[in-house]
């Protein structure tokens, strides 16, 4: 399945429209591409208690995973600033649960559509994964 970067970038920018951000006023949108070409979008959803806030990236992942998706190719992310928005550490960790570090593409998109691309490995080197967990098992 071809990666249509421009389409994924556009979907990430559009996904900001539904952001629920009464506290930060900082909208974020994400568009997650599955290996078979489906796109799941997500926005950030804030909460008066602050910590229950969900980032746009995790909203997209949790929507997709809850629909049975397990195989992902790329995610585009766009924030409400004139600069690139890098995913937070928690979202990088969620990506590492479902995506291959050396091939999953993270596309950072500015409002004007310009973008740059990283692999998950580049943004989360030395991730703690199931492999590390198994090394620690003594039974
Ligand atoms: O990668 C990120 C970083 C931050 N946020 C959200 C969380 C919060 O609603 C707001 C400010 O941190 O931006 C995201 O959605 N994705
Ligand atoms: Zn996050």
SSE map:
Layout: H1 5-15, E1 28-34, E2 39-43, H2 56-66, E3 72-79, H3 89-98, E4 105-109, E5 115-119, H4 120-123, H5 130-135
Parallel strand pairs: 3-4
Antiparallel strand pairs: 1-2, 1-3, 4-5
Describe the protein:
The protein is 30% helix and 22% strand. The protein has 139 residues and is α+β, with helices and mostly antiparallel strands. It has a five-stranded mixed beta sheet. The protein has five helices and five strands. It has one domain (5-135): 3-Layer(aba) Sandwich (Cytidine Deaminase, domain 2), CATH 3.40.140. Strand 1 (28-34) and strand 2 (39-43) form a beta hairpin. The protein has helices at residues 5-15, 56-66, 89-98, 120-123, 130-135, and strands spanning 28-34, 39-43, 72-79, 105-109, 115-119. Bound molecules: 2'-deoxyuridine and zinc ion. 2'-deoxyuridine (DUR) is lined by residues 21, 24, 26, 28, 44, 46, 53, 55-57, 85, 87-88, 91. It comes from Roseburia hominis (strain DSM 16839 / JCM 17582 / NCIMB 14029 / A2-183). Zn(2+) binds at residues 55, 88, 91. InterPro entries: CMP_dCMP_dom (IPR002125), Cyt/Deoxycyt_deaminase (IPR050202), Cyt_deam_tetra (IPR006262), Cytidine_deaminase-like (IPR016193).
């Amino acid at each position: 399945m071809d990666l249509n970067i421009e389409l994924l970038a556009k979907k990430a920018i559009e996904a900001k429209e539904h952001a629920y951000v009464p506290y930060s006023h900082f909208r974020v949108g994400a568009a997650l591409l599955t290996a078979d070409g489906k796109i799941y979008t997500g926005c950030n959803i804030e909460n008066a208690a602050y910590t229950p806030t969900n980032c746009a990236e995790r909203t997209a992942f949790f929507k997709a995973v809850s629909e049975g998706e397990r195989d992902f190719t790329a995610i585009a992310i766009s924030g409400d600033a004139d600069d690139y928005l890098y995913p937070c550490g928690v979202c990088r960790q969620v990506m590492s649960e479902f995506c291959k570090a050396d091939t999953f593409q993270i596309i950072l998109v500015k409002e004007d559509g310009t973008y740059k691309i990283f692999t998950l490995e580049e943004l989360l080197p030395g991730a703690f994964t199931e492999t590390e967990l198994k090394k620690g098992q003594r039974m």
